[in-house]
Amino acid sequence: MGRTAHSVIASGTRGWAQARTVEVIVQKYGGTSLASPERIQHVARRVVAAADAGASVCVVASAMGESTDELLALAASVSPHPHVRELDMLLTAGERISIALLSMAILDLGREAVSYTGSQAGIVTDTGHGRARIVEVRSSRVVEALAAGRIAIVAGFQGVTAGLEPTTLGRGGSDTTAVALAAALAAELCEIYTDVEGVFTADPRIVPAARKLEALSYEEMLELAAAGARVLALRSVEYARNYGVRIHVRSAFVDTPGTRIQEEEGMEHTIISGIAHDTSEAKVTLLEVPDRPGIAAAIFRPLADAGVNVDMIVQNVAADGRTDISFTVPKDDLEQAQPVLQVIDRAVGGRGVTSDVEVGRVSLVGAGMKTNPGVAADMFDALAEAAVNIEIISTSSIRISCLVREADVARAVEAVHDRFRLSEPVVLQEVHGD
């Protein structure tokens, strides 16, 4: 199979993985793919076709259409601040509906199928309601179904704690469920079916000429996902990299090749892979904090303890022993962060806190940046020519991110995409490996 067994494989699964003679694939279908009875029947036909071709198929299903948003709105109509445990209990209902309906449709096509909730499938998580992390996959029931020739249908986005409390994995959690199951089952491939044909060089809604990418390394996809690309959930890519799961992002509506996400070794790389943008963050500034050792720790440790995710950080040049520190946080976390920020400001002796929600991030990603000087300068030139002002810059070895005004994001994406000619046929930079 090309991979060794992993720590997520539960007792009894290793022997099955070594003894089986047919390949196992995991297919994940998103809410858009399952939004109506007709689409569920279409997915059922696609799943049965894969099984008829000889594979053992495990399917991970999201809730139908906008079901999760509708359940969130229903909760808000009953309680302005729903209890997190009860909210998770409510939200797991969406996937229960879709897995049962999909299983019915497959059974009507003459194939044996059985549906499992996250807890029944052995998706064990930590206790973080709403953002739980998978800690173990006890996949024995799924293994038994596949070994008996059945198609296993598993609810995405949900799990259970060791104490049998319901949890959800956060937005995009079905991707993570699928990759975790693929690792536990030692699957040959994890296919992520969505409403787009793959990963593109930019959001086609902003850049219609954006080009579909044939392949990306885990590191490139991690950077794109972290920078705002919505095709794959960040944690699913982290899981795939850690356990060597090969991912194929494909359209649920057209039968065309998508984008492969896999190990970097042996891959041919372009200098730039793509551009991601994100308007879900806010900028926070602590004004005139003392410029002395320990201040940064005194600011960011309480935020971390409060579960607030901090991203881009910049500290201004000090004047008169004081400096401004700016950083970004998710807009969804801003309300939670505000009281913590006020306490921090008083504790460090700062002179106020400001927040700005009208910002957006534009990021350029490519493995070829490591060996090609001038990429940053070209990006900044493109933004300058488009009259886009940069407020914060952050970088990694294969990413450059700029915080700009939210109203300028689309123009910035178009300008940078054009500067690097990402719509043109790919020019390969180098080949890694022997």
Written description of the protein model:
The structure is a single chain. The protein has 434 residues and is α/β, with parallel strands linked by helices. The chain has a domain at 13-195: Carbamate kinase (3-Layer(aba) Sandwich), CATH 3.40.1160. The protein has helices at 13-19, 37-52, 67-78, 84-108, 140-147, 173-184, 218-226, 234-243, 295-305, 331-348, 375-385, 409-419; strands at residues 24-29, 56-61, 113-116, 123-125, 134-137, 151-155, 158-160, 166-168, 189-194, 215-217, 247-251, 259-262, 268-269, 274-278, 281-290, 313-315, 322-330, 353-356, 359-365, 392-396, 399-405, 430-431. A hairpin with an 8-residue loop joins strand 4 and strand 5 (134-137). The longest helix has 25 residues, at 84-108. The relative contact order is 0.11.
Q: Radius of gyration in whole Å, from Cα?
A: 23 Å
Indicate the proportion of strand residues.
Answer: 15-25%
Number of strands: 22
**Into which percent range does the helicity of residues fall?**
25-40%
Shape: globular
Q: How far is it from the N-terminal to the C-terminal residue, by CA?
A: 21 Å
Keywords, separated by commas or semicolons:
434 residues; Carbamate kinase; eight-stranded mixed beta sheet; four-stranded antiparallel beta sheet; 12 helices; 35% helix
Furnish the topology, listing elements before pairings:
Layout: H1 13-19, E1 24-29, H2 37-52, E2 56-61, H3 67-78, H4 84-108, E3 113-116, E4 123-125, E5 134-137, H5 140-147, E6 151-155, E7 158-160, E8 166-168, H6 173-184, E9 189-194, E10 215-217, H7 218-226, H8 234-243, E11 247-251, E12 259-262, E13 268-269, E14 274-278, E15 281-290, H9 295-305, E16 313-315, E17 322-330, H10 331-348, E18 353-356, E19 359-365, H11 375-385, E20 392-396, E21 399-405, H12 409-419, E22 430-431
Parallel strand pairs: 1-2, 1-9, 2-6, 3-6, 9-11, 10-12
Antiparallel strand pairs: 4-5, 7-8, 11-12, 13-22, 14-19, 15-17, 15-18, 16-17, 19-21, 20-21
